[in-house]
Amino acid sequence: MARRKNIVLLFPDQLRADFVGCYGAAFMKTPNIDALCCTGIIYERAISPSPVCIPARASLLTGLNCIKTGVFNNDHWLRPDHDECGMKTWAQILRENGWHTEAIGKMHFYPWDIGEGFEHRVIAEDKRHIYIKDDYYEYLKQHGYTKYHASEDDGYFENKGAVVSRIPLEHQVDKWVGDRTCEFIENYDLDKPFALMVGFPGPHCPYDPPAEMAGMYKPEDMPDSIPETKESMTFKPACIEGNKLPWNGIDYSEFTEEQKKKVRAHYAALVSIVDQQVGRIVEALKKKGIYDDTIIIFTSDHGDYLGDFGMIGKKEFYEPAVHIPLIVSHPDKRERKTVSSIVSLTDLFSTILSMAGLPYDENNGDSIVLPEFNDKDKAREYLFAPSLAGFMVAKGPYKYCRYYNGVNVLFDIEKDPREQTNLIDDPSYRDVVKELDQIMIEEIFRSILAANEDKVVNRGGISGEGPFGERGWKRTYPSKGGFVIRL
Fold it and tell me: What residues form DSSP beta bridges with 41?
């Protein structure tokens, strides 16, 4: 029997693909992430199926879209009885089958300190969660610092969230996550493989590198922002109002190109801090002598507009918000390869279980084993993605979206990567729209049915036979069915 591999999932928060060197960002310095590309498989068209923080993470854990998880917004989380409903996390399944499961850094669960299948956690939550007394809070307290809202830093409002943190690099949160991860690897002595998820709070806003890193990139070297379009302008008012709320408190009604580029330079510096930690973690695996027994996966939950289309953050299905990096460096495939077909963040659920030699639901269309790791070399025909904003179907070069506000778009991403030309009313694309719309309708109904499998009264029929026909029969609830992982 082959020796079971360790699994390390490196998971920065809100990292868009085009701010990583190996994804074509010549202006970036990400040598350690790029090195993973040189020894692994880079998925060029990796997409977040729900470009909002917590919905994306719920889908990553379960391999299910947000209709099925019920997690649409950042104030939602998985139902407490999701295990009983057959909606287990990959961490829980690995734990039940002999892996030690460890989570270090930001997970964004509710409550913030629950396990969700991870038997041990070292916690540094969202940079905006300044009142959460997590492990990082205790660490800062011991070293004479405290969590604080970045609005206390000079220039926060004028520079649209691009500031210099008063916490030095030595104690910066992503560095702290890297420190704790290296310590875990160095000290690990259990006689079983581990599955480790490393959640970096950066490069999510606020765009607050410490002084040692703040000048690493010049604003004038940053790429120009993507122009607004007639369609994107319909989403801008909600983006502006949402960011005025106390969690951020910034008014983006006016957002100049100069301000955008300063934000981008600070974001790039935060990416480079994460890159430094990636290098340290890989080196720790090598020093421990377990690099050749460890699968390394690098990805993110979603991207960030950074001023593209005049917006900040994420929510809609535009490329800056949904196009994420995904790199897999596997001991059995330590060579550079590129996969151009569409893959989804949800595909990591089935892929991780498959890599662990465990069964997974092959009928779950939300999560298929990644190309290069499935026996049939199967690739996605399309990706259906529901979210708080609306619905998307991506197939081949096309991205078709129907939004809650009535805006419908069709883009050819290969010919129009900046999504400037909406083809929805172009007669020559009528058949494409019809095909993708039919896929969308079918997938919406499939997802709604799967989301309600817990309510099935008597699986196998309700004609009255057996105990069902007896007075006082008790229904089983929740009824396991639609997304049960059969082990």
Answer: 328, 337
Measured in degrees and rounded to the nearest 5, phi and psi for residue 9 equal -105, 110
- Per residue, the 3-state secondary structure of 313-360, as one string, reads CCCCCCHHHHECCEEEECHHHCCCEEEEEEEECCHHHHHHHHHCCCCC
CATH 3.30.1120 domain range(s) in the chain: 390-456
Q: In the structure encoding, which two tokens stand for residue 287, read together?
A: 């020093």
List the CATH code of the domain at 6-382: 3.40.720.10
Neighbouring residues of 445: CB distance < 8 A, sequence distance ≥ 6: none
Phi and psi angles of residue 411, each rounded to the nearest 5 degrees, phi first: -125, 145
Task: Record the pTM.
Answer: 0.95
Q: Could you read off the pLDDT tens digit of each residue along the chain, which spans 487 residues?
A: 467 999 999 999 999 999 999 999 999 999 999 999 999 999 999 999 999 999 999 999 999 999 999 999 999 999 999 998 889 999 999 999 999 999 999 999 999 999 999 999 999 999 999 999 999 999 999 999 999 999 999 999 999 999 999 999 999 999 999 999 999 999 999 999 999 999 999 999 999 999 999 999 999 999 999 999 999 999 999 999 999 999 999 999 999 999 999 999 999 999 999 999 999 999 999 999 999 999 999 999 999 999 999 999 999 999 999 999 999 999 998 889 999 999 999 999 999 999 999 998 877 889 999 999 987 778 999 999 999 999 999 999 999 999 999 999 999 999 999 999 999 999 999 999 999 999 999 999 999 998 998 888 876 666 777 888 889 988 888 886 655 433 3
Task: Please state whether 435 falls in left (phi above 0), alpha (psi between -120 and 50) or beta.
Answer: alpha
Which CATH number fits the domain 390-456, given the four candidates 3.40.50, 3.10.50, 3.30.1120, 2.70.98? 3.30.1120
